[in-house]
Design goal:
4 copies of one chain form a homotetramer. With about 325 residues, chain A is of the alpha/beta class. Chain A contains 6 helices and 17 strands. The first copy, chain A, has a 9-stranded mixed beta sheet. The first copy, chain A, has an 8-stranded mixed beta sheet with strand order 2-3-4-1-5-8-7-6. Chain A is globular and about 55 Å long.
Amino acid sequence: MTEPCHDLAHLAHVEMLTDRFDESLDFFTRVYGLKLSGEDATSAYLRGWDEYEFHSLKLTRAGTTGVGHVAFRADSPEALARRIAAIEASGAKVHGWVEGDLGHGRAFRFEDPFGHVFEIYYDTLRYRPDAGDRAALKNLASRYHGQGAAPRRIDHVNLLGEDVAAFRAWGETCLGSRVTELIQLDSGRLGGVWFSVNNKTYDLVCTEERGRGHGRLHHVTYATDQREDILRAADIFLENGVHIETGPHKHAIQGSFFLYVWEPAGNRVELANGGARLILAPDWEPVVWTEADRKKGQAWGLKTIESFHTHGTPPVKAGAQ
Amino acid sequence: MTEPCHDLAHLAHVEMLTDRFDESLDFFTRVYGLKLSGEDATSAYLRGWDEYEFHSLKLTRAGTTGVGHVAFRADSPEALARRIAAIEASGAKVHGWVEGDLGHGRAFRFEDPFGHVFEIYYDTLRYRPDAGDRAALKNLASRYHGQGAAPRRIDHVNLLGEDVAAFRAWGETCLGSRVTELIQLDSGRLGGVWFSVNNKTYDLVCTEERGRGHGRLHHVTYATDQREDILRAADIFLENGVHIETGPHKHAIQGSFFLYVWEPAGNRVELANGGARLILAPDWEPVVWTEADRKKGQAWGLKTIESFHTHGTPPVKAGAQ
Amino acid sequence: MTEPCHDLAHLAHVEMLTDRFDESLDFFTRVYGLKLSGEDATSAYLRGWDEYEFHSLKLTRAGTTGVGHVAFRADSPEALARRIAAIEASGAKVHGWVEGDLGHGRAFRFEDPFGHVFEIYYDTLRYRPDAGDRAALKNLASRYHGQGAAPRRIDHVNLLGEDVAAFRAWGETCLGSRVTELIQLDSGRLGGVWFSVNNKTYDLVCTEERGRGHGRLHHVTYATDQREDILRAADIFLENGVHIETGPHKHAIQGSFFLYVWEPAGNRVELANGGARLILAPDWEPVVWTEADRKKGQAWGLKTIESFHTHGTPPVKAGAQ
Amino acid sequence: MTEPCHDLAHLAHVEMLTDRFDESLDFFTRVYGLKLSGEDATSAYLRGWDEYEFHSLKLTRAGTTGVGHVAFRADSPEALARRIAAIEASGAKVHGWVEGDLGHGRAFRFEDPFGHVFEIYYDTLRYRPDAGDRAALKNLASRYHGQGAAPRRIDHVNLLGEDVAAFRAWGETCLGSRVTELIQLDSGRLGGVWFSVNNKTYDLVCTEERGRGHGRLHHVTYATDQREDILRAADIFLENGVHIETGPHKHAIQGSFFLYVWEPAGNRVELANGGARLILAPDWEPVVWTEADRKKGQAWGLKTIESFHTHGTPPVKAGAQ
């Protein structure tokens, strides 16, 4: 029997590509309500107001959209070493060490079965607020600024993959992560798998690519403190001309209250609130959702919107289909 | 350097003593909104509607009030063995194995420096809802019944101790737990210490006994999904003649939104909501609150109510003071 | 220029017909959370916990579903007399005086253009709570019981009519009510009209009958204090097997946060929250929504569900279509 | 019997004096979240985002603090004339017509028994948003900007008076307003009186001056849509160094959820949420609160803070006491 002790501490950051950098940056700071920690030649580094690291979103100028890479921070140098050994033994495609960027030290890079780039690292840069950004309460990472939707922290990332079962095996082996919920299709295939390396209900999701894309991003999500923050954000998105794709509503899977919008370059972004729900059982068994379950729609009956099954970033070129 | 890997998975349950059993049971089921899993000759076993174990509150008929014992579930049999070895090596007072009760298998018992009884175990009894108590969504442990305050799960227990520094050493050694926040008094003494074995911001607290009691309980807390659940609960408590001691307000320490009431026998019970705040950093440094910090009151300025410093259970007999 | 002084004080109650009386009564008391004031041979009299009159919903055993009658209370005996004079002068079909029922004194009955029965009255029966139902705060009509969704008070009723423009003329003339918002179809017809006799944004709505019915009810709505009450109610409906038709979401028209369900006999029932929005301007001009506006869906983009255009009570018999 | 038909439509605006104009204006726009409609030589004109008039707060540079004047808008020119006749017949001190300012046409001015200046008018200036300030939904007066606390509209003003019974008589006679709740002291004096000219539970309050001041302001209040808006505002106030005097909590009288802060010049400002509570009964009888009732504190037991009884603006000079 393996013990549930994890090696990875938490989802750390996602690099998102945008071909409308200025508009995307304006959206993420003014409307979505992240804070800008710094910028370099290619990227802006952003974080929720109560995140201890330098950034959780690296927004990068590119000729396309989608995900640059996904990063997890390890529990310790020893845990990091264990993960690297497991990855190298797994046969996963390995990029090896990179030097890090403005937000952290050297990181080990590798790929999932569909070419999404992941990195894991331990050496990080803690965010140090200057006097104007220091919170009134000393247990907060920085001042609550109340700008835009102002979520507290990154929550999870959802990738698309052609073979969810392959992703499951990869996540269990390479990340040492556990599956908390999954969709079991009647065909025997997996429709989606939800992972967590800690007590969060999920931090990484892979759902089936149905749009003929490859290596695509489905969405990135930040967490709010209350459901009311999401209802209020819906008005903010409305007033700022942001495309609201679906929600607010409550997911059946994982039970989180959600709202999906598209940032200016087309990447899907979610706000979610999970209430007090955590996975505390060390011997949690994955919750299995069947196609029959899924036909009931979301928790309160909302039908899943069609674009949710097809839209990912980068978009699939017309000629490719 | 020690790794942050924990051995204990989570706070599992608290045994609360009551000398007004029927009234206490009515309060906890009808007003506070826990569910009754079962009863034996001395105790009622209660749980929040989304807890996976048989019970998180064991309410026991007694000639007095206060805490019977506090239980943590271990991550695995191996982790349990590691903890027991550490406890036995620590010099803590050990009771040894007990057979368990309606809610779990055998457990290992020992004491904190002030005589509060703790137990740790791995073998548990999962709650199995019958058809009428099964939730509409299969990822919930049982049906959301919406009765009374209806919190989701147990959150933490706060004990009183004459020497908080001694409790800190005990908690780090015996529980293998980490300190997330603490109060550093000008005298050099610790005023309070907040522990967590997982990603929750805290699950166990020890604050200084100032009422000449010994081995007393300060309060037990359950978590709600939203702050609105607590505001609504305040009206329910008001309409049911429950003594509201203080709140709703927001704690400076740990930042949770709180409401404190006394159940019919006098034990203090809290409802709390922590929003999306978690301790995800593997190298989290304890937040240190000074007396100067504490003089600012709670987060939004509420002064701490006097009874909060003196009331504990069992009450101190007049002759004892 | 006419002055905005109204003669009718507020929507008082709706009589709803049910061919599943016991199930409907169980739904309205246990799940929806109204209180039962009394019963007579044919009907149960129900009210929200903070309503000053004996009832706001008269639930009547019948061989069908839909609306029995809609009642408004007048501002004074003089105002009632003015309204009756206006009704009699209008050519509306008049039933004349009825003796009232358990909840109020004599009432004057008449019809709208589609046969829905209305009554207006001044003499009422104030609800007098017994000791067990008295609120802890003396400015509340009765104890907040927290049962089910537990809305505070009736909000509005929505009827279906073949000719909304005719209803508008009738409402302005007979009720002396003002239009706060309306839908102007491209064809020149009105698609819906929202009325208010006081500072509420609306209390009576007529939308176009598209289902070949006649004299039908679209829905009855009660108001909650917070949007969170509606999110919580959604879980209560889900756990009780209630058909959730659409929502929670926010209306574009009138801006209220809504949730629509069908009670066991099929009558549509809404919960709504309007926040702090009131119509305070004495010279308010109706807000006009065009078909182009309506194509944007609800406030945050939800498409109006198809059954919303066709389902009314009583249902249209198959042979009739 | 007099009919409840009112002549005044609603509280329109309050002129607040500040001897720290720039700081006060920064507070009201950036932190409290009103919008600036315009400025003239002495004053800034501010409004909540969903108010139809040009302004509801006139912030005026002065050598002191407190209230400049309080304005109500009449229902019609005829209603205005009726009020003026009643005022002139009452013996109240009359200033007569003034020309109005940026926000409305000519207004009739008079005083309450303690020298607070009131004005009533009908001719107003509707706020016309430019393209950038137009709301996405056409039934809103302007764009929801989400800046700071961002309340929707003005709610009420609370003045201090040496003789509350005299104020009651004045308010009933001169404003034609009705009393919805009051405090009856054991001495036979009135401790406070709550008025409403419409369906709001109150728009004008007079409580007893206990600080040896004269003609003072107790506070001005704006309404939020949800209680959560107030909890969120508490964090915004905290982070901006605003003095939070008391709250958030729920009033026993009128039942509104409240938060009191002091703007930079010392004027007390409240945010309040009344849920769905309205005064709809045309024959509402004032709710009478005794000293015994008041000893229970606020709704959930919070003791009234001492400064609430003494602090008003302008402050009483030391030499005057």
